[in-house]
Amino acid sequence: MTAHETPRLQLSGLEVVLGRGVRANRVLHGISFEIPAGRTVGLVGESGSGKSTIAKTIVGIHAPSAGRILFDGVDIGRLRGRERARLRRRIQLIPQDPYSSLDPRRTIGQTLAEALDPRGASVRAHRARISELLRLVALDESAADRFPGEFSGGQRQRIAIARALAVEPELIIADEITSALDLSTQAEILQLFERLRRELRLTVLFVSHNLAVVRQVSDEVIVLLHGDIVEAGSAERVLSEPQQPYTQRLVASVPGAPGFSLEPQPGA
């Protein structure tokens, strides 16, 4: 990114406190980083490090107690009403759990139609776009007439990806999108996600505790520990030559993980 370009996403001094009174817990401590358009930043750390809190704060599930979140230079916290809702649609979250993220009472077509047009979720009106989205994630268009319970975990995650892409967002937040899946299915979803990332030139915040995955999909890596950034830099540098003891321990704990290759496998 050149000096005059505005980052797609910029966090500045972000603090988040969850709970109230004696139960209040400061989860994030002045987090600052940016993601240039078209780049992928991996956010890594152990459970409880604050990764998912950052993701949920960006999309408005949690409220910052201090700091700013800027999207294309616009302070999200200063927006209200329709302006805020409009900007939020440009940022889409792919959640961790493919089982609870879809309404079991709605067909896949209804779910995608609602993503396309929340006020008038007509499957008939959006049939062509729904079929296109399903093909994009390698599902048959007949999936539109079926319910979430008829699909495997990997297929549901494909549907969650299709839903996130429905409005052609400018930022995707992928929050541990493979952690609930078995190894072979994880590899399939990551291959799909990487293909879409390149073809659609997505800007991505990729949240994961798995460094083997992050290394293959990320341009930059940010390492979190107890709500603080302890190391950041290019994925190659941070994960090949970590400078901080905590990052060194994380990298040393990564197994060979052959199941996470993003290269198409023979017969796949």
TrEMBL record:
Keyword match Nucleotide-binding: yes
GO biological process assignments: transmembrane transport
Domain ABC transporter: 9-251
SUPFAM superfamilies: P-loop containing nucleoside triphosphate hydrolases
Tagged with keyword Glycoprotein: no
InterPro entries, sorted: AAA+_ATPase (IPR003593), ABC_transp_ATP-bind (IPR050319), ABC_transporter-like_ATP-bd (IPR003439), ABC_transporter-like_CS (IPR017871), P-loop_NTPase (IPR027417)
Origin superkingdom: Bacteria
Keywords: ATP-binding, Nucleotide-binding, Transport
A single MF term (Gene Ontology): ATP hydrolysis activity
Coiled coil: none
CDD domains (UniProt xref): ABC_NikE_OppD_transporters
Homology family: Belongs to the ABC transporter superfamily.
Protein's name in the database: ABC transporter ATP-binding protein
Organism whose genome encodes this protein: Leucobacter massiliensis
